[in-house]
């Protein structure tokens, strides 16, 4: 929106807009009210982070207690660990996720046998269609200590069975694998569409100029995917302090032994609220997360705007 | 005449393509081999767990305990399904709840997203940017889980109410943005001529815009239906044991898996044998039962799914 449009808009008087567009306003009302109730009212609820919640007082009537909730969080010494986990997991998910999605899209595009391509794509989508509950069940099926397929294979090859649910150090690899397994097929579609959108004449011209298949990917396909990659990565970085609750909750199933490696901010907040019933402290952790998210997404957008305004989110 | 030219052109293209194939160099060949091998392997890795679960669900419990989960089926039994369906009331009930929630929720969320998207796509509406920002801001900052949860449970009465399963996922800003972008691509001349004929905005939305937005509706419908069918989170937050008749399928499965686990732990601690009950195979059969419909639906919607994902590739 440029300056001219803004001025033009400001000139339309309030009453006139209502009179002319009352039907549109009425149509917007349900969503506006919904967002007001479920997003804006909870935003005022962040005061809870500075209060000692009691049931009778509710959000607004409970007494203030300053920074006590944050102090208690500091004393519990969990925040550093869960923040580190959330950040590291998400960085790995974003980097490997993008590489796998772009790579799969490029390779899928090379496949000319239609039936093969269709079947492969159908299989690759399948994991996206199941819930994390089912994914967790499948994982248990594969890695269960006594009966899992993985251990059965290890034993039949002469090795010792591997107890995943007692080995925190293995979880970063397992969770990354699971995330890639579930998201790659689905995520590659956007990139595949972007590849098919590239002007075919460019490839023909490159062939005439003597470019080989790899050079065409390096100098034509990948550069034309950059805008899509930047936009999607930017969106992902905006949520870098938000853990994928389903992934961590349904696979780890609150096994306390695994917590040091698998606890993210979201599972911590959830545990504080539902298991410990510690509403105020949970609200404080939740505010901490929201503020971190808000700062990262704005920084990110600011940086991108500086480099190339076309890629900015807003 | 023109048609024949086109045909000829196509034939020529084919010839060129064939020549191209014959001249496949080492670089192109290596790329092709990598593509087929990688995509083939990845597809197998994606599909394999489903295969294993189905096999395990049809394997007798005794064989499972003795040999572990099989890769190649050795024995066949429907015992686990019989047991899972022995008390079909619970499963049928949760199927019913899930289906109801999915249908109502999907219908309402398509309606909300497209109607809001349409209003904001209207270029003659002077407040559209301000209102769009009002929505967009909620994706940048949120109050977090706790205030939202307390609002829902204390002030809106979501506890043990079916609303709790539908309302939290009704409106998504991203779906609204997708709708807005899609509808902005429909020529505004259509809206304007209808206006001249005396149609109001709501009529235009229902009678003109919706029929022109079928791919959009298919996409949003698929996204929402998937979200509702696979939801366990809201059920876990708001529905307690006293209203187990409101359990959705995925949550029901989650509880059964958890219960089977707990049972096993108790049995192991007390040294009691649990072989009497086909826990392992029953878990697998329950997983198949809970996943089944959505995967069966999938081949029919795959076309829309791919199309829709590209509609969604837009920025805010």
Structure description:
The complex is a heterodimer of chains A (314) and B (316). Chain A is mainly α and 314 residues long. Chain A has 15 helices and no strands. Chain A is globular. Chain A starts with a helix and ends in a 7-residue tail after the last helix. The model of chain A has no long low-confidence stretch (mean pLDDT 86). In chain B, 75% of the residues lie in helices and 0% in strands. Chain B has helices at residues 2-22, 26-57, 61-67, 79-84, 88-121, 128-140, 145-155, 163-166, 173-184, 188-196, 201-212, 214-229, 233-238, 249-270, 279-311. The longest helix of chain B is centred in the N-terminal third of the chain and has 34 residues, at 88-121. The model of chain B is unreliable at 1-10 and 12-16 (pLDDT under 50). The interface between A and B is large, with 101 and 103 residues.
Gist of the model:
Chain A has helices at residues 3-11, 14-44, 58-61, 68-76, 79-110, 114-125, 132-143, 149-156, 171-196, 200-208, 213-238, 245-252, 259-262, 265-275, 279-307. With 314 residues, chain A is mainly alpha-helical.
Features:
A: 314 residues, mainly alpha, B: mainly alpha, globular, disordered N terminus
Secondary structure: number of strands of chain A: 0
Q: Which descriptor suits the 3D outline of chain A?
A: globular
Query: What's the helical proportion of residues of chain B?
Result: over 70%
Strand content of chain B: under 5%
Average pLDDT score of chain A:
86
Low-confidence stretches of chain B: 1-10, 12-16
For the sheet with most strands of chain A, the description reads: none
Write the layout of secondary structure elements.
The complex is a heterodimer of chains A (314) and B (316).
Chain A: H1 3-11, H2 14-44, H3 58-61, H4 68-76, H5 79-110, H6 114-125, H7 132-143, H8 149-156, H9 171-196, H10 200-208, H11 213-238, H12 245-252, H13 259-262, H14 265-275, H15 279-307
Helix pairs in contact in A: 4-15, 5-9, 5-11, 6-9, 7-12, 9-11, 11-15, 14-15
Chain B: H1 2-22, H2 26-57, H3 61-67, H4 79-84, H5 88-121, H6 128-140, H7 145-155, H8 163-166, H9 173-184, H10 188-196, H11 201-212, H12 214-229, H13 233-238, H14 249-270, H15 279-311
Helix pairs in contact in B: 2-15, 5-9, 5-12, 10-11, 12-15, 14-15
